[in-house]
Description:
By secondary structure, the protein is mainly alpha-helical.
Amino acid sequence: xxxxxxxxxxxxxxxxxxxxxxxxxxxxxxxxxxxxxxxxxxxxxxxxxxxxxxxxxxxxxxxxxxxxxxxxxxxxxxxxxxxxxxxxxxxxxxxxxxxxxxxxxxxxxxxxxxxxxxxxxxxxxxxxxxxxxxxxxxxxxxxxx
Length: 145
């Protein structure tokens, strides 16, 4: 495999890694939104508990507390399931991103190595050519010149 073919593979691996990294950022953002929704429910419960005191607590308990608690628990379960699923998706994407980063890195290192070897080979060939020219020049020069 020559350097240009390897460079093309390197570009492909970089594009694949960039795609995986973008998917990972999107997935982590979705996790963050789900966690924020869960935190909002918890905060709302805390604020409600602080705000409901005395007669207001009794009145609310007789009317809407059970409905609100039912809704909050159902929403929390829904969000927890969505968060668990999103975390599984994120983990899959992380594994894919790790693999594509590894490929990208390995191909980059191999490309660098091949370019260095190609430059060294070109320098060696140039040195040999110059040595041959010098030897040829010495043999072609008549003695005493």
